[in-house]
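Example record used in the benchmark description.
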Amino acid sequence: MPSRYRWVVVPRADRFPKLWIDWLRLGLVVLLAVTATGVVVFRQDLGRLATCNDGWPGTAAWSAAGECVGLSDGSYAFGLDRFAPVLQTIDHQNDAAADSCDPDGTPVTVGVLVTMTDRYTGGRAVHELEGMAAGQRHANGTGCVHPMRLVVANIGAYGPDSEGLDVAQALADRPDVVAVVGMGLSQEQAARTADLFAGAKIPMVSDVITAEGFDQTGSREDQPQFDSCDPDITYQHGIGRDYFYRVAYRNRVQIDRLAAVVTARPDFIMVPTGGSDPYTCTALPMVQRRFGGDVTEVKFDADESSTVLQTARRICGTAKDVTVVYIARGSDLARLLFSLDEAFGSGQCAATSVAVVSTSDGQRLRAVEDNPMLEDLRVRAVRSASFATGKVRLLTTLVSGADKKRPDNPGFADLEESFTGAGFDLADIDDGWAVNAYDSTVTVSEALRTLPAAKPVQRSQVNTAISGFSAAGQAVRGAGGMITFDNSGNRADAGPPVVRVCPLPPATGSRPARTTSVPAGPGDPATC
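Model output (structure tokens):
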């Protein structure tokens, strides 16, 4: 008996017309082919639809490198419980954004680009978001013209893939986003992200990026050297041309301020191996140049903790007051200080004292770590006997410009009011990330207040307003001081104070103790 089908699935013409079931086989094959093609073509969107987003179907957040990344307009915390309270606060503030603003104002959205889980952030990432939420609260208060809503963009941890750029692209594709704050860390991927936003004509106000090259001109005026950095970097040419600004003090300014206080020639520069970290590879030649060159470099492997102990023993081999310039990330600093204390305690350190001098990442020791092992090391270091007596001292720059209210930073009181009003603990201000995050958000807010109500806000208008903060009479009232920008987008003033980080006192009650600081000057012992 001849088959009812040609090529297995197509009904034979001589059978027409027959029952509809003759077409069922062909229909199933076509359906399967279309479905398979859709899976191949749209596999990324389908994958995003099924992952993250608190189990609800959606593409705002997705899984990459084993963690949730993407966008959150409200309370979604990317599966990270420690961020849930601050994101709930942002959600509530987004809902109430227009309550105190000009009724004719046009609502705007500001993107918050952060890395929540990179090892170089630690517990400070929560403080950063708290600072931005406090900035939003201040922005939507007295004098508000255009209600500000925040959308949080989490790039996860910096990794070998392009998930950070994918998140940035999702943010840039939103037409309601008129500016971006945050921008992550001093990393090559951050440079490429800045160029992506500049291509979309989105102004950026970075809060904690400090490395040389990470401005609009590649830090040309600082005459940086990039020879020890990775060969495939792009930031040496500048980033975010015409659209990038930063409230954090760049490394050259920090190094100059340290050199003005630490007048003795350093005995060692402690630096990690390799050139993959822009924070280190751009700072090292500047430290050498600022202190006369040929300073002994003591290297350690940031991926192997035991090498930090070996470095401490090297430092202890000199029978004198030793000065060490530390230009590595703060995540390894507590281990160094603890190792020095152990050497002193066991009688194996010949040095009479050790002054560790660090750029701004040294302030990480003032923040509670989210990693229990690092937190144990931090507490042991800043409560150690040698740290308490001053035999081991830590001098660092304040990347934010201030950690408390002074006569020259009246905006700090505004931060404290907004911070506590949002329900956050003032101890989270101490490491400086919340201060800088607040100042970056307030910079955008002040730009918005210069724009007329009743007209849609354009990205170009916000950018032009930010670039106009260039003189004392047109400065932003920041918590870290009055903020102006130079032609490269860098913060333009005398630079940050140098402080001595004081020992951590015992905890009282249920609240953690706060690690304080005291100002340091040339020849000033800066007694805690």
